[in-house]
Amino acid sequence: MVMEFIEHPVTVNYLQISDSREIVYKHHVDFPVEIVKLEDPEPDFLRCLYRTVGRKWNWADRYYWELAQWYDRLSQPDVNFYLMEYQSSPAGYYELESHDQGDIEVSYFGLMPKFLGKGLGGYMLVRALENAFELGALRVWLHTCSLDHPNALSNYLSRGMRVYKTERQIQLLPKNWED
After folding, report:
1. Cα 37 from chain centre
2. Residue 76: how many other CB atoms lie within 10 Å
3. Is residue 81 left, alpha or beta, with left meaning phi > 0 and alpha meaning psi from -120 to 50?
4. CA distance 43 to 101
5. Three-state SS for 25?
6. Tens digits of residue pLDDT in 53-90
7. What phi and psi, each to the nearest 5 degrees, are found at residue 15?
8. Which helix (H) or strand (E) holds 32?
């Protein structure tokens, strides 16, 4: 099967925060959630999280990864996965990746569809930033684009992150999504 893609213009914002004291905390969460570090996640579980969280936002870069590719990602020592749970069910997840010179990237960050609009994104972002600084980050950064949730950029800004670069790019999106 040959995958066909379409070109879609997007605006990409790169954001950063350099000190844990700059985090603006979200104090109230209506759901009793817990965030846990996934020590030995199964590749198929991570693939399911990625697909479920990212489908609506056109996350296509890993959508068709084979399990072996997920296993390779899991075996990278500088990559950490965190799961937000509500009543033992996945509510969201994020991935932190360490880079050179003390940079930690929030590579992926998102909520399961049924948890959108409930105020959990701000809480989860605070925890992601805290976890990154606990891992030794000197700078935590991420990027978001105009395909992401409409509140993504405002969530990042509200938690103390600052835009340091904006650019226009062409995103390749699958012409026909298939599982």
Report:
1. 14
2. 10
3. beta
4. 29
5. coil
6. 998 998 888 988 999 999 999 999 999 999 999 988 99
7. -125, 155
8. none
